[in-house]
Every structure is written in structure tokens, then in C-alpha cells.
């Protein structure tokens, strides 16, 4: 497989399976599917986490793993401008983990997320439990609802591009944990961004679909998500490098370790922050930082351009995680 | 863990996580969750399949695996008396399987199931694709709808117990495939029951919740499912051994190989047939065979009793698959 293997396979799956019926408004290809139900719209999505790919129990506790597995999936509901309803969780455990101690710790992660998300609530209503001959597998599926979903495909030329929080925080936290022996000092805020990301319902639920034209969560890094937005909306996007927010904690760690905070933000992923396109005249809501703009689609040129501090423009490919290329891991929606 | 480990863990999960909110009619513990949505009721369930636990690619093709993964989950919707709406599928593949050939074959299984299920339809609307450092992992989550769900918990004393099809067919097919070298001759109907089970919407959609009081699908064998029904409904159940249907093909294979067709039916599982409780005066619908009855709950005695051909009564424990006991594999709903 080429480096594009993962997205090629998703395209292949989309091509080889029957397209959605009339009641499906959005099928394969956005953060969550949108299905017409009565007078409202139902959302459905799933996200899996595999031990040794998405997490390592030497760095994350069973509670962290449960927290993050649910958070990752719920974030897709936030990224549609939706409200979660119910969650099912499938868990395949190797025999040595199928004990009260592991399961108790795991459940604590579910309950902690529930507490952290309040006042947003979800119901944990079932799932499947299996043994695994190898790693731990977790899959979470979530339903949600929304009156007006905010899709990836709604970006319009002239829109302002904004991101919430500090993208790259999760990657900085992961780097710090992986290099703990030499770093020795690491902010808990960085590790927590990696181990216990909180879906941004606090922001998404205030978004107005009139002014917020497109929305996606940053699971694979800013570069990858900007490319997804551009492709889905058939527009071009320009990101101003100097405007990408970077918390001083991230910059300090990058400086100390000779890493690039910019690379963490662009290619790190797993932040579960929101990347949004707001109409040209809209005020950027609190919690978001303006980082670029949506341009007219030209016949040629890259989907996403990075404007460097010296004014030089460079194409910004997805570059984020790709499951079947030799790169760090994350999930990708079918 | 004791042999009861799997169900102990599910009880533990249920105890340690917050119970469902008011809008959830059925949470952890039935074939699918039931969530009030507008004037109707939404169903949600998930089922996972793990390579080396639920399937073996020397016996099942990638198309079989996809077919069965979806069928298993959809069967839970049938077992609630529901109609499927949308499916999401998460797939974790080792790198050597992440290629066009495997994914194309896999998608053919999805489309074949879709064709076989007609006129019942479902939409395949997304999911997640990941790499796996070990076995293939598949999780399917499905939503459905129903005006009046038929639960496990509705069995009433006096009810007639009936099962669809020929339970044990899947186990016979699996045994035949596992012992192919010595058997050499095997009915395709038996292997197909194991590799491509078809959810019984043809029967479930004709059931009337007035006369069909309780419903469950046979994923873990008749014995296990009868125990689930008895426990959930707080009743006792009597199964008449001689009435358990066994197709001549199954009996012939059992005779030839010195196996027990009865054990296949009671403990084999993965049939995805329906086990139903009908009111005492109801006519048993076509496709179902009367195999026993629901008794008053006594203070003592087993939940399920098997009446042998000589009239002797013997307690019938679940005995089906338990993921953390040294037994053959299957799934169990959280």
C-alpha cells in the first residue's frame, strides 16, 4: 500500500458498498452519519482504539483508556454540532486483563468522563464483551441528535478558519511521556490532553449553523483536518502559521527537547479540538482562534496552503496519521 | 476468573456505571438498548468479532467475516422485534490485510447480506478504520426502530417456548469445517449456517407483541439463551428434549462423527435463530417449533429444566460460550 493507503481503503469501501438511502442525509465521510428521524436528525458514529496502536498501558491507565475511547467517539458528535444520546461499547480483553481490577478501573474512566462532560449527558446502554488473543480492542458507537448538523462540506469562500484550544497539546503530552526518562519534568496539562481529551461540547453547543458553516474535530492534526474540510467543501484553505495558537507550556517543551511545536500542531492529532469555518462577517466565538481563511477553488494548486512568517506560501498536505503508513497512530472515520 | 467470568464482568460493568436516564427504556442487559425517540423507540446495539476467537480465515473468507459481523449485530435488532436503520463498522486490520483485495472481498460480504435480507434494508453509514498489531478486529453497531420492543423480560408463566429453525446447525457446520480432513463430505447448508447466518427478520417482523411476550436470539446456544430469558423474566423454563428440532443433516453428521446433535443445539450457539415465549393460547407461528413452556417461579430449583425422553428432569445450566472460560467463542451483550 502507498502512504495514502488508509484513505484509499475508505474510498474503496465507499465505492463498493451501496450508497445511503433517502433517509440518510450524510453517510460515509463526515464525523458522524446523519439520519432523518421524525422531525429531527439522528447522528451515529463509531471509533475504535487498539492497544499498541492507539494506546500503551505503560503510559495510560485503564481508566484513561476508557475515558479516551468514549471521548474520541463523543467528539464526533460535538463535531456535527450535536448532542449525544446513547453509547455502546465493545471490549475485547486478553484473559489476563479480564478481571475485576481492570474492569473496575476501566469503568471509573467512563464515569469520570461523564462527570467532566456535565451538563452534557449520555447514556451508556450496552455493548459486547469478548476475549482477545492479542491486544485490547475497544470500539465505541454513539448516537446523537441535532436540529441542524454542521458538516465538513459547508465551508464557503471568504469564511474565516478558526481552531479551538491549543492544537498540538496532545502530541506534546505524548512526546513527553514517551521521552519521560530524559525529560523528567512534564506538565500534567500536556499529558492529560493526550490521556483524557475532553470533547468540546462547551463550545460546539453554542455554535450557530447560520454563521458556522463547517466543523470538524482535530483527531489527525490541523493539516489533515484542514485538507478534509477543503476536499469535502470543494474549496481551498489558507492557514497563517503565526496565528496557530501554541501554549507556552508546549513551546517550552518543544524548545527544551529540540522538537517543533508547529509540527505537533499541524501533524500531531488526537487533540479533539474543533476546526471551524465562520462566515466572513461573524465574530469568532470565545474559545476559538482565527488561523486562516477559505479561498475560492482554483483549478490548480494545493487544497491547503501554509503562509509562513516570511510570507512564503507552501502547500500543506494532510501529513497527519495514516494507519497503513509508517507513522504514529490515530483513527480515521469511514 | 471463574468459569462465570464473562457474565460476572458484565454485571460488574452494569454496577459500576451510572444507570440509564429517563429516556432509556432498556439499558444494559437485553439484545439491544431501547431509547425513547419522539413517538417511537430507537434501538442500539453492537457486536464484535475477533480473529482467532470468533473466526479463522482458514475456514471463513473475508466476505463471510463481513457478512457474519453485520448479521450478528442485526440479529439483535430482530431479537427486539425491530427494524434496522443504520450500521457503522469499525475494522482494525493487520498491515498485510490492509489491501484492496481483502477490503474488496470484505465489502462483497456486506453487499451479499444486504441482498439476502431484502426486503429488510439497512444503511451502511460509516465507522472507523485502524491498523492492528495482532488479529483482525471488527465491531458493528446498529440502530433500529420499533413501536413495541419485545424484551427478554416479558415471559409469563404458562407461555409456550418456541425456537425457530434448527438450533445446532451452526455448531454442526463449525465442527464439520474443523474436522474436514476426516469428514470429507459436508453439507453446504451446515457450513453456511456458521459462516453466513441470516438474521430472522422474516419471522421477527411478523411477531405480534400481544402474543409474543419475550424474544431473544440464539447466539450462545439454547441452554444459555433460555437461562437469560428465565433470569430476565424471573420465571422458570422447562425444555422438552424430544421437541428440540434437529435437521436430518445435523443428525447424520453427528452420527457419523460420534458427536451429540443435542449438545450442538443446547450449547453450540451462533445460530442467530429466535427463541420466543408465546402466550398459552397463541398459535405457534410458522417457522417456530414448540419446545417447552414457562413455569411459575418457585423459591428453589433451577431456572431451566431439561425433560429427557425418559421423563427424567435435569437442571440445564447456561453452558454456552463464556469468553473467559476454556470454551469455544462467541459474543455476549453488555
According to DSSP, the number of beta strands of chain A is: 14
Helix content of chain A: 25-40%
Distance between the termini of chain A: 18 Å
Category from helices, strands and their pairing of chain A: alpha+beta
Helix segment count of chain A?
10
The quaternary organization reads as: homodimer
Order of helices and strands of chain A: HEEEHEHEEEHHHHEHEHHEEEEE
The main β sheet of chain A shows up as: 7 strands, mixed
| Most extensive chain-chain interface | A-B, 82 and 82 residues
- Mean pLDDT across the residues of chain A is 91
Question: Unreliable runs of chain A, pLDDT <50, ≥5 residues?
Answer: 326-331
Strand order of the largest sheet of chain A: 8-10-7-11-9-12-13
User: What general form of chain A does the structure show?
Assistant: globular
The gyration radius over C-alpha positions of chain A equals: 19 Å
Strand content of chain A: 25-35%
Main attributes?
10 helices, 334 residues, six-stranded mixed sheet, 14 strands, seven-stranded mixed sheet, globular, alpha+beta, 26% strand
Structure in words:
Two copies of one chain form a homodimer. Chain A is built from ten helices and 14 strands. Chain A is an alpha+beta fold. Chain A has a seven-stranded mixed sheet. Chain A has a six-stranded mixed sheet with strand order 1-2-3-6-4-5. About 2% of the residues of chain A have low confidence. Chain A is 31% helix and 26% strand. The two termini of chain A are 18 Å apart. Chains A and B meet through α1, β2, β3, β4 and α3 of A and α1, β2, β3, β4 and α3 of B.
